[in-house]
Amino acid sequence: MLFERLGWLAILPYVDSVLVIAVVVLCLGVPVRMASQALKELLNKTPEESIAEPVRQAVANALANTDTQQVRVRMVRPGRLLYVMVHVVLPEASRLSITNQDALRARIDDEVRRYYSPWCAMSCLPPTLVGRCPLAGYW
After folding, report:
1. Rounded to an integer, what distance in angstroms lies between the CA atom of residue 104 and that of residue 112?
2. 13, 73, 102, 110: which has the fewest Cβ within 10 Å?
3. pTM exceeding 0.85
4. Cα end-to-end distance, the chain, whole Å
5. Which domain holds residue 16?
6. How confident is the model over 71-91, as pLDDT tens digits?
């Protein structure tokens, strides 16, 4: 009707195709974002900074009164779970007993769980054992 009045009969056969293409282009962003996020999860990419930073801050708060040489925090988020691995290198002079190391691990775990309820693994090693740590290659 409108195209007949305006004299655009030549483009009338293409209107449906153009509208379908426009709808597909407008709706294509959602599946592309979902696929991109799923691929990042498959590759164990660190979650976005808005999730990672509070966890790093929680680990730093828990270790505030502990003398450390190095602290590494690794996170992966496959699906809805957040896995946090904390690797703490203690100074050589630090002779923490297993009981004290376990208390330190529990303190870090409690602090991180205030933000999330992840699975948390932590190790405390003197610098001489860092090279022999199975997690050392991930840092």
Report:
1. 12
2. 13
3. no
4. 68
5. 2-42
6. 999 888 877 778 888 998 888
User: Residue type for 49, please?
Assistant: E
Q: Are residues 53 and 34 in the same domain?
A: no
The residues, any chain, with a CB within 8 Å of residue 70's CB and separated by 6 or more, are 87, 88, 89, 130
Residue reference for tokens 């426009």 = 22
- Provide the residue count of the chain: 139
| Closest C-alpha to 61, from 104, 11, 123 | 104
CA 66 – CA 58 distance, rounded (Å):
14
Report angle CA 53, 59, 62 to the nearest 5 degrees.
Answer: 140
Residues 75, 47: Cα–Cα separation, whole Å = 7
- Looking at residue 16, its amino acid is D
- Domain co-membership, 103 together with 130: yes
Are 77 and 134 contained in the same domain?
A: yes
Q: At what angle do helices 49-62 and 98-113 cross, to 10 degrees?
A: 140
